[in-house]
Amino acid sequence: MAAILCAACVATSAQANETNPFGIASFSLQTTEQGPSPQSPGEPYLFDQAEGHPFALTSTVQFTTDQIGGNTVATGDPKDVIVDLPPGLLANPNAVTRCPGQLEHCPTDTQVGTFVFRFGDRESQLAVLGEIVDMTPYTGEPAELGLEAPDFGRVLLNGRMVRTPQGYSLAIVGRGLPVLNLSSLLSGLPPLHLTSLEMTLWGTPTAPAHDAQRGLSCIGGLGPGWSCNGGGVASGEEAIPFLTMPGSCTGEGPTTLAWSDSWQQPGRYVQARSTLAPMSGCEQLTFSPEVSVRPETTRAQEPVGIDLDLKMHQFEENERAAPDLRDATVTLPTGMAISPAVAAGMRSCDASGPNGIDIPTGVNANGEPLKPGEVGIGEEVPQVGLGPEEPELAPGHCPKESIVGTAEASTPLLAHPIEGHVYLATPGCGGASQSPCTEHDATDGNLYRLYVELGAGTNSKRGEGVLIKLAASVQANAATGQLTVRLLESPQVPIGELSLHLFGGERALLANPASCGPATTT
């Protein structure tokens, strides 16, 4: 079958139909647990445990078909498929051994799931089942999966961080889906068009329950039954969870979007929506962060550099992960103040524009979720990447003179820490087109603000493919002047440690209290 993949067979593929154009007829995404289920013992059932590890995650996309001349035909050949997972639903690419991209076929210990491609209509349908393998990604991508079966070829799926209206999330991007041409094998048969795809990712890939499908590949249809090879392979690797559920119990099921375009009309995307069951069991989770603050100097009234560390224990308890950091509020010692150097007018970073941070919103001018290749208000397509058809999140343009510190975050999902900077943000008052600053602006954090950008640090050329931008405020107590730094709405990513280093010396944001004595940070 090596010669039957034909991504360029558009001239002989399904023609666009004006009455029933190319689209997604149905889309579902479900996380399941293996029995016993009270309703159907032994059968998988929906899994909704917050921060839990499901047995499997299955996504199914059925494309539109039409009746022409009494035959069921596809209304177009799907080219690209993108699935935006809900924030907090994550896959750990380091859970199993990664397959080098130059290998023709990946070892079974790199497998993390299965896929099924279905071609043609019910009367002449062909189905191909194969392995989903964890691959070593190219520079600039945090993760990459491969869909492969012997003699069938390989379709790559990129995993990348995107910004949706709900927050930062993981997107699974499949480019260049195959058009299957059987005319070289069976004369007289037209090309068979991809009508549906199903992808199942395993919660813990090394679990014995997946041994039957480990290394399995099958082809079925155009004849009786399935023809299969492989399978029944046990994994000798450590049992590390690959999938983790969101940790937010809002009473509403998290939603996900699927996007697709066709070979006939590339770039014209259609969408479909699916909703998971609401998360439950948040009250069973344990959140026990540790906070430490270390000043560079203890000399009174001196500009001071600060090292702020937040450590979140990534332990597993009853097969659940630790909750992700959402908000951090740090109250500095009484008497610690904004350094005169900052008050004198250090250059700041705007919210957007040529000197802006450009925090993404995930929506367009109409408030709708961004389509693949679309950018939001104040955002831009990065100059380096995979081209305008597939933009990645672009770094901000904060002036170097606005840098007041560095940032670093570690996560078990990436091999290296994510590095970045802390910027002094332009005040929300006192500007040319703004109202004068008042005491209220100082107390609510509108006067002194910060931006944190992770993924654009000194070692960003390592190419982890993650870029996160956050806003922080510095609030002053009206009665005591005591400063509070607030970092809100962090992404649902398992951060093991978040470290902020604020510079001392001439570029110091803060100055020590004028009086000596104990200094307590909360």
Q: How are the secondary structure elements laid out?
A:
Elements: E1 24-33, E2 45-46, E3 56-63, E4 65-68, E5 71-74, E6 78-84, E7 90-91, E8 111-119, E9 126-135, E10 143-149, E11 153-164, E12 167-174, E13 194-202, E14 217-221, E15 226-229, E16 243-244, E17 255-262, E18 270-275, E19 290-295, E20 303-304, E21 306-311, E22 328-331, E23 337-338, H1 340-343, E24 403-410, E25 418-425, H2 439-443, E26 448-454, E27 468-476, E28 483-487, E29 497-502, E30 510-511
Antiparallel strand pairs: 1-2, 1-3, 3-13, 4-5, 6-12, 6-17, 7-16, 8-9, 8-13, 9-10, 9-14, 10-11, 11-12, 14-15, 17-18, 19-21, 20-30, 21-29, 22-28, 23-30, 24-25, 24-29, 25-26, 26-27, 27-28
Sheet/helix structural class? mainly beta
Amino-to-carboxy terminus distance: 65 Å
* Mean pLDDT over the residues: 82
Strand content: 25-35%
Secondary structure: number of strands:
30
The helix content is under 10%
Question: Can you tell me the overall shape?
Answer: elongated
Q: Count of helical segments?
A: 2
**What composes the largest sheet?**
14 strands, antiparallel
What is the multimeric organization of the chains shown? single chain
Instruction: Give me the Rg, rounded.
Output: 26 Å
What are the low-pLDDT stretches, counting only 5+ consecutive residues below 50? 1-18, 182-187, 383-391, 458-462
Protein model, in words:
The protein is mainly β and 522 residues long. Helix content is 2%, strand content 35%. It has two helices and 30 strands. The chain has helices spanning 340-343, 439-443; strands at 24-33, 45-46, 56-63, 65-68, 71-74, 78-84, 90-91, 111-119, 126-135, 143-149, 153-164, 167-174, 194-202, 217-221, 226-229, 243-244, 255-262, 270-275, 290-295, 303-304, 306-311, 328-331, 337-338, 403-410, 418-425, 448-454, 468-476, 483-487, 497-502, 510-511. Strands 1, 2, 3, 6, 8, 9, 10, 11, 12, 13, 14, 15, 17 and 18 form a 14-stranded antiparallel sheet that branches. A nine-stranded antiparallel sheet has the order 19-21-29-24-25-26-27-28-22. The longest helix is centred in the last third of the chain and has 5 residues, at 439-443. The chain is elongated. The N and C termini lie far apart (65 Å). The model is unreliable at 1-18, 182-187, 383-391 and 458-462 (pLDDT under 50).
